[in-house]
């Protein structure tokens, strides 16, 4: 078990026994991609990878977290077209069909149906045998360790990285219970550099300014206005009740109580965004692609066509800057 734990790697430590790196594709310059977490917004990674490939920019290193590990792992195995076809075929009904709900487990969803889909296309692959260097980030339950999955089953590495706490079952690997890497490193720039990347391009799925929280320096606590009654008295009674509200309350929408699932996912998204900002400040990427994904809900997996297009659009917009930075690094090499 000690050997297996060592092979997983850990933040800030050298990675032992890694397979030899594939030759760099751009004159000695190794390009790394750090693909961030973001649930359904992760389909944007497909558009990003497609736009880069069409521009002749292919990574030598991919570090993925959560859905970034899913798309990045498929790309590393040469299966990007399969994950794209799967994503585009999703509907609300098909998504429900993939969710094997359970009671009494460590997660609301067992995840066996999702695992079977991954096994179908990726079951024969090991992380260390891929044609380019790939690794996924996971979090160990209880200790909070950041675990770098650099060897072993590709499917298990992906599953561990996307195991959303309380929603999906964690993965037991070598005595470690592993769950979503977004809890510790939502955009794994550090991992991409440790894997040998000379230049790192990251994809931030939560970088849309419309979704980023700020500081409200002065707010006085006050009882929220009550929503107008919805009794049988009808629209006239509701209108009169609204007119009776104070002017400031009348000018803004009345808050409605959110569902527990919505609160849970929003809280996770807020924490993920703050962790990502902190990690990126400590180890900034050379370039960052931030698709405008504010309108895509975290669990709207059925909107793959829109999300892929947004990822492609953001990448194409940044291509001149990417080429300029690559040219500078190549001139230095």
TrEMBL record:
> Which GO biological process annotations does it have?
lipid catabolic process
Checking InterPro entries in the record gives: Acyl_Trfase/lysoPLipase (IPR016035), NTE (IPR050301), PNPLA_dom (IPR002641)
PNPLA domain segment(s): 33-193
Q: Which SUPFAM superfamilies match?
A: FabD/lysophospholipase-like
What does the record give as the active site? 66 (nucleophile), 180 (proton acceptor)
What is one Pfam family matched by this protein?
Patatin
Write one Gene Ontology MF term: hydrolase activity
Q: Name the keywords, alphabetized.
A: Hydrolase, Lipid degradation, Lipid metabolism
Q: Where is this motif: DGA/G?
A: 180-182
Q: Which Gene3D superfamilies match?
A: Cytosolic phospholipase A2 catalytic domain
The record places the motif (GXSXG) at: 64-68
Protein name as it appears in the record: NTE family protein
- Recorded source organism is Methylobacterium dankookense
